[in-house]
Write a structure and sequence with these properties.
Layout lengths: L1 H4 L4 E5 L2 E5 L4 H13 L3 E4 L2 E4 L1 E4 L2 E8 H6 L1 H4 L1 H14 L4 H8 L1 H14 L13 H11 L4 H10 L3 H11 L11 E4 H19 L1 H13 L5 H13 L1 E4 L2 E5 L7 E7 L2 E4 L5 E4 L2 E6 L7 E2 L15 E2 L13 H17 L30
Antiparallel strand pairs: 1-2, 1-7, 2-6, 3-4, 5-6, 8-9, 9-10, 10-13, 11-12, 13-14, 14-15
Length: about 375
Amino acid sequence: MRQLLNSDLELFVESDFIYLPLLFDPEIEKETQALLQSGRAVENSGETESKIIVKIKDIHFIKTLSLHSLLKNYEEINAYSYKHLRNACLQKYHLTREVDSIFFGETLNTILFQVMPYFVRKNRGLQRKNLSDEEILDFVGEKIHIPGRYYKEAETFGDLQPLQAILKGLEDEKPIYKPPVNGLFTGRKLREWLHEAVHANVLASEQKRIAETLKVREQFSQAKPKHIAILLYLADTGSLEIDGFGFTRKNGYKGEYFVYKRVGEFVLKDYYARSYLFPACRVAVSTYTPFRPFVMEKYKHPFLLRHKSGQEICMQHFAPPNEFTAENAIRILEEGLTALRYGYNARRRNGYHSLDRTWVYIPTIDFEDYRI
């Protein structure tokens, strides 16, 4: 069937059924004529007369699939094509889950509009100015390159009429698609109808989310197109970094992120006042429990138990919060950064490891390659 719908072969449609042309073969022709003469070529299906064989332009066509059944089971018949059509339909109206997350989710808004301004300064001087959401988006637009396609999408994103018309049609219980009229169709033409019908079914299944999306977009109806473009870009990529502060979407966790702050190279001294140069790294906190600071890269430090990535920073008397808020995220990152740079006490050799080797040496993580 997939090959037929991708071809220019003529098919016949009547009463919701697809009729395929019969191959020219003496035996088939003989059997067809016998069937027609016996009167068994006609069967009743409900109230509509449905023929097994019809003759159009001296070509015999035989009844095969129901269009309704084909459409209803299309996801199982051709899962790849259905997924592609569904994604194309949702993207056309910006109904993808990624876009929803930035407009419906509070987490990313908290990171973008509350946590980031603490670590990234727009204004110079000692006084920290509180920025509005619009000023923050202007600042982001100045700092990163937004591809042109997101500005084009922002224009259509602000056009609510297509979605409003779709929602009204669904609420009025209008037919979600029109069946093709009886007659001859090429396989390609019938495929076009099938794709349009699949799109209609997808939109019908998304009726609730369309209504929710419209409410949100109405709130953004006065927003600048460039601000919408920035939000669409962030929703699509799920990551951002400006001046050492950034976030990235957490794989496998819907709407969750790693929020981080880069720390540059720093020096620690051992018991004998010898210096060790530690490389740069990212101190991060997850928006999903546990709310503890950790180092994203493969890293070694007296406050890290092993030499690997994703290790929590050991800090005495640190009480992790039980929820993700802007205030908690800022505190966790600040305490993690402070612990790495200033928490090691050379006299007490606190932490999992010691920078210098003690008289009773127990092999652990070694820092000799960091000594300068």
